[in-house]
Amino acid sequence: MVRRNRLQAMNDFPIVAAAVINSFHTPRDPVLHTLQSVIDKGEPLISSLSRLAGVTKGSIRALRGVKPGDDAGPVNLVLLLRALDKITPDKRPRDGNKWQLFENLLRWAEGERSRIIDSPKYSEDLATHIVAGLMAAGETQIVRWIGHNLELLDGIDDYLDYAGLWCATGAGGEVVSSAYVKSRARRTVRDALMMRYPAKEILRQVNCWHKEINNPANSLPLDTSVPDEWPALPGLPHVCGDLTIVSLTSNSQLIAEGMQLKHCVRVYTDSCWSGARHIVSIRDAAGQSLSTAELSISETADFRYDLSVDQHHSFANGMPSQACTTALADYMQSIASDEAQADLEEVCEFHQFRRGELGESGLCDDGRSASMVSNIMRKILSDYDCARDWLLDQLDIEDTWYRLDNERAAKALSKFRLDETLSDKDAFELAWDTGQWECMDAGLRPAMER
Questions:
Q1: How far apart are CA 192 and CA 220, in angstroms?
Q2: Could you give the CA distance from residue 328 to residue 292 in angstroms, rounded to a whole number?
């Protein structure tokens, strides 16, 4: 019976069956694991998948007979369905070529959105909004906008980070004081803002942003007393055979690297300044740049510092050579030693101290001027005044919720006689009892002052 049900699913909905089979290797996806049970029991597939994925039955029926692409592995089925659900039936892909384009866009969206698997850079709603908008426009328009190279869409990620910074600064006004509201502004509010625009307009904004951000007048903080440099990563330069890896430690070095390899590493000046990113160049014996890699430092659960590779590209964002990849792997292995931990910690402490000084400098937490970010966004958003008013209204809603929740937290905690001797263990137990996780720190302060 189970075998018959599985064969029927593979015959009627091959792309769904392929996703379920692949789920044996992706235990994180509860929808696909539940769907496997639905198929084995012979339960109605269309209604069950519609309920599990939260989409209409029409979107499920549109997958009947659709086979997965053969060249790049299975796609994220839930992401596919939710994007498909946003496309009107007359604009949905019908032939093999359009389905292949749809799957490629979904792979781009999933890869770009979730470079960090447990912390997507933007929401699924925004990802499906962009993909659905591109597909609704049609293949001819997609080629007109981005050609045949989906890598040109990668700039969306960097632009969204910048737009999030604009949101977190209240459109260039006072920097949002609450860490919680600021976090909401940089991601949740930003994504809602972007979803006000069609995919075509978002692509126009990305292109406009690249032009503005590459203008030297827009790349440095207004406070010229802030040094335009940062420390090198430990262990560099690192020699591996005929290649040498060096740290790029200033805006001028990033500009030169970008000009030589024809990519946009220049836009990372601000995040390098803040320590969010570290850029290294892999060079030949003559000192010519062959590829560029973006690295980041994170603290692990056991209080170690972990250096990871976020991206690695050669000329025009192409794939790096095997020699460059090997050299970078050799460096990463060398820096993973216990001896390098103190050096990585020193780099992190430098940037932490620098960011701590920004509160009195008028800059954002990554070194960029709030007013400068606003000036650039004014050139990008065609409806800037309307977008700004919408943003300030959303920030007011977020701040009101946060303030009221803090008051509830303080009231719930006031029955405890808290003082400066409150331990981390006690704080955890109070949070567990009251359920005030998001606002625990802010809720404790007014309670402790009573």
A1: 28
A2: 10
